[in-house]
Design goal:
This protein is an alpha+beta fold. 30% of the residues lie in helices and 12% in strands. It has helices at 7-12, 31-38, 57-67, and strands spanning 44-48, 74-78. A two-stranded parallel ribbon has the order 1-2. It is globular and about 40 Å long.
């Protein structure tokens, strides 16, 4: 299961080979790579998984949106079933 892997392990996964030999070697991009590719082309819905109240993930995502100046291209969604 992917949630049991570290980011370093996830970055090494080949996510294309199962689909077709043509896509063998494709890796999972991180959010800055996705934003760099999408800027000026498509809108993004960035879903933040609940990591708990002490997580800095929401702030980090907001900083990336600001850094890439993508305010008009991003929607951020998240749910917390504990509230």
């Amino acid at each position: 299961r992917i949630q049991s892997l570290t980011w370093e392990q996830v970055k090494q996964l080949d996510v294309g080979r199962w689909f077709s030999p043509e896509y063998e070697g494709e890796k999972i991009p991180d959010l800055p790579q996705v934003m760099d590719y999408a800027k000026g082309k498509i809108n993004l819905n960035i879903e933040i998984k609940n990591e708990g109240a002490k997580s800095s993930l929401p702030e980090k995502v907001a900083e990336l949106i600001q850094e890439f100046d993508m305010y008009e291209q991003c929607i951020v969604t998240s749910t917390s079933l504990t509230y």
